[in-house]
Amino acid sequence: MPAADLITSPQNPRIKNLLKLQQKPAERRQQDLTIIEGHRELTIAHQAGVAVQALFVCPELAADARLQELETMFAHLPEWFAVSRAVFEKVAYREGSDGVLALVRPPRRRLEDLELPANPLLLVLEAVEKPGNLGAILRTADAAQADAVIICDPRTDLYNPNAIRSSIGCIFTVPTVATTRAELLAWCARRGIRTYAAALTPRARPYTELDFRGPTAFVMGTEADGLTPELMAACDETIIIPMGGYIDSLNVSTATAILTFEAVRQRG
Questions:
Q1: CATH number of the domain that residue 48 is part of
Q2: Whether 154 and 253 share a structural domain
Q3: Which tens digit of pLDDT belongs to each residue from 1-22?
Q4: How many other C-beta atoms can be found within 10 angstroms of the C-beta atom of residue 175?
Q5: Among the three residues 105, 123, 143, which one is the final residue of a domain in this structure?
Q6: pLDDT tens digits, residue range 39-65?
Q7: Which domain holds residue 234?
Q8: Is 46 in the same domain as 115?
Q9: Which of 43, 48, 180, 238 could form a disulfide with 204, with the two C-beta atoms 3.0–4.6 Å apart?
Q10: pTM score > 0.90 for this model?
């Protein structure tokens, strides 16, 4: 590990800034920075080309083998800080941390920046508000090699540290874009992408009856409210996952996974 004075005070300006970035979306937007905690998540982000600005490591918590990997990956990073266990545990946002935390500049994309194949598979989330659901859906997108995740009118910061954690870094491996409903619909129409709204309505068809081999976007709503009537009405098809028990719906991340892997199966 590069030589560095050990930060032992939570009043250190860099530590105070980490806490602000962890807790306040406005600070993350203003500084255009976010936090990644964990060696695995940081490695995935680094491999995806994310720009790391600073590294904070607790030598007492980080395994020697991981320290050696970090030294190799970030040999030329000037901003490298050793942190005492007490201070690291103050800035860590999960239990059982492995002593690695990084300050990174998250990628910012627009719809027009997406480089799509001729036959894209897209996951669209409207007004997502739970970082855990966003993270789980990003893991599905990564596993299924979906071409992008698009968030319409998000209610959570896409690069919330908890979303990064729950996605295990997949928010950096899957192109992710925030946009508006109107922009999304116009963009899909220009590109001939068929939109499938997942919603419990009289006109909804079982997902097993449809062909997802063409350009496809699955459009998912929040668990509390579902899709807005405007977005639902604007989609090309409304689909359901038939339910055989007492409940009439699934967790949005589970439903998204079922639809996504059906599309993957159909595409062979």
A1: 3.30.1330.30
A2: yes
A3: 565 579 999 999 999 999 999 9
A4: 19
A5: 105
A6: 999 999 999 999 999 999 999 999 888
A7: 111-267
A8: no
A9: 238
A10: yes
